[in-house]
């Protein structure tokens, strides 16, 4: 029996993600928690015929911890898209003031009620909300470095699609899924697209630089187009679904799977991570191998060009600053 819980399930990401997970046969029980509207969302989804149990939970008031307790108890996986999204002119870091507190309090409940769950954090700024989650779990004495993930899959989706666009769709995005990835963090130029041998398809620097920029600022493209009505939701729900569906193979069937996520690397088994990463940051988005117990290995992508190495070094500096912001939020002291 696999139970999955979404915290923030009634939102722009939460609703389409709930729909996708309602249709996933690997999930036996889907638990939808939000401070608004999940009873309606779950009633709606419950009319889709599947053997899956589904229930929506809304707390009675701010002091009601009983409802989230019931929503979380027995969860094998918890996905967190709770928090405010950007409006035009804002950076992801501008979300910190509100989302840091939301993530900290939700993770506190996760740590108390389902400490063994795999935790997937979507709420921005990911580079800081993941360290907040880790430090909160550590405070509770239940932190498992193998089971906390910041979801950066949308950057990978964008790279696959935008690279295919720049190659005039001559290559299928399925081929690119197996061949390209992003590493680093999840904000602006902390995102590092790694495109392997596809490099040789770019005859000029200008079109390559355009690709890099579009991946790094893909989120801004959507924020601008939505014009005050939020940020990426449908593509993000798809990205989270891809990650979670893959993770479910590890959880339910004990398969060994490959993913990319923003994780705390210094307490994990690693392979060929360069010193310029490990010396300066404890967190980075990198390729990982996962089984039923969680992360088995964190690796560095096989080959990077000189430019990709430079971008990675820059990303390390960016991530480091964002990580200490998250750490300080929980401890009130410098990392
Ligand atoms: N990791 C990534 O690649 C991406 C991350 N995001 C981030 O995901 C977050 C959510 O985005 P949207 O779904 O578009 O926002 P939204 O505002 O549509 O939905 C957020 C939901 O969280 C709920 N919520 C707020 N406080 C809560 C609490 N204490 N407990 C439970 N639920 C709570 C709200 O009621 C709302 O339903 C934002 O921070 C956004 O920046 C968005 C896109 C990509
Ligand atoms: O840009 C944003 O604020 C939302 C996000 O993280 C993304 O779309 O990658």
UniProtKB/TrEMBL annotation:
Residues 152-330 form the Lactate/malate dehydrogenase C-terminal domain. Substrate binds at residues 86, 92, 124, 158. One of its GO terms (molecular function) is L-malate dehydrogenase (NAD+) activity. Coiled coil: none annotated. Pfam families: Ldh_1_C (PF02866), Ldh_1_N (PF00056). InterPro entries: L-lactate/malate_DH, Lactate/malate_DH_C, Lactate/malate_DH_N, Lactate_DH/Glyco_Ohase_4_C, Malate_DH_type1, NAD(P)-bd_dom_sf. It is an enzyme of class 1 (oxidoreductase). It catalyses: (S)-malate + NAD(+) = oxaloacetate + NADH + H(+). The active site is at 186 (proton acceptor). Keywords: NAD, Oxidoreductase, Tricarboxylic acid cycle. Residues 3-150 form the Lactate/malate dehydrogenase N-terminal domain. GO terms for cellular component: cytoplasm. Homodimer. Belongs to the LDH/MDH superfamily. MDH type 1 family. This is malate dehydrogenase.
């Amino acid at each position: 029996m696999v139970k999955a819980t979404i915290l923030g399930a009634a939102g722009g990401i939460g609703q389409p993600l709930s729909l996708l997970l309602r249709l996933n046969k690997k999930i036996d029980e889907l638990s939808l928690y939000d401070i608004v509207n999940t009873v309606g969302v779950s009633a709606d989804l419950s009319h889709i015929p599947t053997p899956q149990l589904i229930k929506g939970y809304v707390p009675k008031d701010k002091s009601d911890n009983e409802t989230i307790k019931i929503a979380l108890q027995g969860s094998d996986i918890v996905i967190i898209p709770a928090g405010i999204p950007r409006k035009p002119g804002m950076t992801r870091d501008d979300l910190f003031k509100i989302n840091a507190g939301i993530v900290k309090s939700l993770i506190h409940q996760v740590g108390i009620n389902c400490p063994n769950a795999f935790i997937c954090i979507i709420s921005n700024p990911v580079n800081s909300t993941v360290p907040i989650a880790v430090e909160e779990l550590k405070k509770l004495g239940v932190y498992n470095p193998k089971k906390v993930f910041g979801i950066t899959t949308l950057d990978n989706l964008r790279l696959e699609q935008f690279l295919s666009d720049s190659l005039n769709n001559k290559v299928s995005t399925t081929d690119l899924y197996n061949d390209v990835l992003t590493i680093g963090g999840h904000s602006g130029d902390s995102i590092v697209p790694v495109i392997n041998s596809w490099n040789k398809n770019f005859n000029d620097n200008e079109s390559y630089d355009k690709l890099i920029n579009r991946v790094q600022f893909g989120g801004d493209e959507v924020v601008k187009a939505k014009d005050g009505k939020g940020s990426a939701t449908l593509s993000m729900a798809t990205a989270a679904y891809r990650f979670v569906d893959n993770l479910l193979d590890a959880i339910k069937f004990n398969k060994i799977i490959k993913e990319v996520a923003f994780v705390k690397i210094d307490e994990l088994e690693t392979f060929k991570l360069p010193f310029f990463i490990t010396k300066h940051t404890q967190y980075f988005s990198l390729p990982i191998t996962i089984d039923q117990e969680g992360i088995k290995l964190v690796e560095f992508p096989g080959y990077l060009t000189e430019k990709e190495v430079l971008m990675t070094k820059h990303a390390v500096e960016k991530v480091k600053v964002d990580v200490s912001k998250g750490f300080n939020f929980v401890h009130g002291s410098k990392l």
